[in-house]
Amino acid sequence: MAGKFSFVSVMGALLVLTIFHDPIIVDAGQGVPEVALFTFGDSYYDAGNKAFLSKNKNPPQTLWPYGKSRDDPNGKFSEGYIVPDFIASFAVADASILGAPAESMTLNQQVNKFRSMISTWSDDYIEKSLFMIYIGTEDYLNFTKTNPTATASAQQAFVTSVTNKLKTDIGLLYSLGASKFAVPMLAPLGCLPIVRQEYKTGNDCYEPLNDLAKQHNEKIGPILNEYAKKPNGGFQFTVLDFYNAVIRRTTRSYNYRFYVANSSCCGVGTHNAYGCGMANVHSKLCEYQRSYFFFDGRHNTEKAQEEIAHLLYGANTNVIHPMTVRELIVFPAKENMRELWEPNKPSIRRRRSSRDYLDLSAYY
Ligand SMILES: *[C@@H]1O[C@H](CO)[C@@H](O)[C@H](O)[C@H]1NC(C)=O
Ligand SMILES: *[C@@H]1O[C@H](CO)[C@@H](O)[C@H](O)[C@H]1NC(C)=O
């Protein structure tokens, strides 16, 4: 099994992605240490593991049109590269924190897999490396489907159970020596084309799912702050406000040069959101993928993924906070962060001087 998970020595890749838009692994240079990027979570960050775990010999993501712009379908959920393409990924499609389909791994199983392989890397290397975790989509989609009439308190209890698992699994990674964590907030799940299609919301998002994502997101920063406050603990992290980054792109898509952000490029149905790559579905593929924000019903196009990687690496504090991924990588190991995560960072800064006049933060 170990062979199914590969690792690439890393940070050069993020750097290259930012500068040349092409994630070829090279020596990082420029003061960025060579470290690994370990990703955990669901299909967003799955660099193809699900395809190996699947009992189905040809799951959709291994079939055309997935990967079409990069020659081959390769088990990744876009027409080309995905955010952590430059990395080895522990992320497995459809993984969820509280239990997952038989073919996939929960976050806890992924963490245990990492634990079983930990002697592969030195403690020093693990401590300097970046751990990215994106998880929860599957939990909330499933909860909403199976409990359509859940009360507010049942929803809160469910969010707490999901975020407590996340907290425990991050704590487990930390106890194994991981010390740098990048945790994107959940996307507005109610705006995914597959959700709009299944709940028949037309051009609107399905708000009950957005509410669950918001409740989940509110807990992420405080959970991470708790670890980071331990004296001399050396726990470092940053949180990408992926929720609002997606909202900006779905509500003002033209500003970001996405011409379609309310339905998918590949699939069938009112929002073209179902069945991309499935052998028995005659899905439609849009002509120009780069003008779409979503490739299939729940995953972004390569162009969108490239933008997200840029946000992680270099967006301002309204978008990624308390530091960028680049700053996180170069932050001295073993030191505590100087600034913690704060709620309600203003999303648009006041323009106070002529220098600030060119601040484009609202466009991130
Ligand atoms: C989906 O929800 C049902 C009912 O709450 C639960 O039994 C099942 O384990 C869940 N599946 C996943 C993959 O979380
Ligand atoms: C998506 O938005 C466009 C432009 O606003 C609109 O014409 C179209 O009907 C919307 N699609 C769906 C499925 O609601």
Largest sheet at a glance?
Answer: 6 strands, mixed
Task: Output the structural class.
Answer: alpha/beta
Query: Which CATH-level-2 architecture?
Result: 3-Layer(aba) Sandwich
Spatial separation of the terminal alpha carbons:
40 Å
Side by side, the strands of the main sheet go 2-1-3-4-5-10
Described by its quaternary structure, the protein is single chain
Work out the strand percent.
5-15%
Gyration radius, rounded: 19 Å
Organism: Brassica carinata (Ethiopian mustard)
Protein name: GDSL esterase/lipase ESM1
Keywords: Signal
Family: Belongs to the 'GDSL' lipolytic enzyme family.
Can you describe what's shown?
Keywords: Signal. This is GDSL esterase/lipase ESM1. GO terms for molecular function: lipase activity. Belongs to the 'GDSL' lipolytic enzyme family. This protein has 364 residues and is of the alpha/beta class. It has a single domain, classed as Rossmann fold. Helix content is 34%, strand content 10%. α1 crosses α10, α3 runs parallel beside α6 and α5 crosses α8. The protein is globular and about 55 Å long. The chain starts with 10 loop residues before the first helix and ends in a 34-residue tail after the last helix. Bound molecules: 2-acetamido-2-deoxy-beta-D-glucopyranose (NAG) (2 copies). One 2-acetamido-2-deoxy-beta-D-glucopyranose binds next to β6. One 2-acetamido-2-deoxy-beta-D-glucopyranose binds next to α5.
Present the secondary structure layout.
Layout: H1 11-20, E1 37-41, H2 49-53, E2 88-89, H3 107-116, H4 123-128, E3 130-134, H5 137-146, H6 152-175, E4 180-184, H7 193-198, H8 207-228, E5 236-240, H9 242-251, E6 260-264, E7 266-267, E8 284-285, E9 292-294, H10 302-314, E10 320-321, H11 325-330
Parallel strand pairs: 1-2, 1-3, 3-4, 4-5, 6-9
Antiparallel strand pairs: 5-10, 7-8
Helix pairs in contact: 1-10, 3-6, 5-8, 6-8
The chain binds 2-acetamido-2-deoxy-beta-D-glucopyranose (2 copies).
Residues 96, 98-101, 139, 142, 146 line the site of one 2-acetamido-2-deoxy-beta-D-glucopyranose.
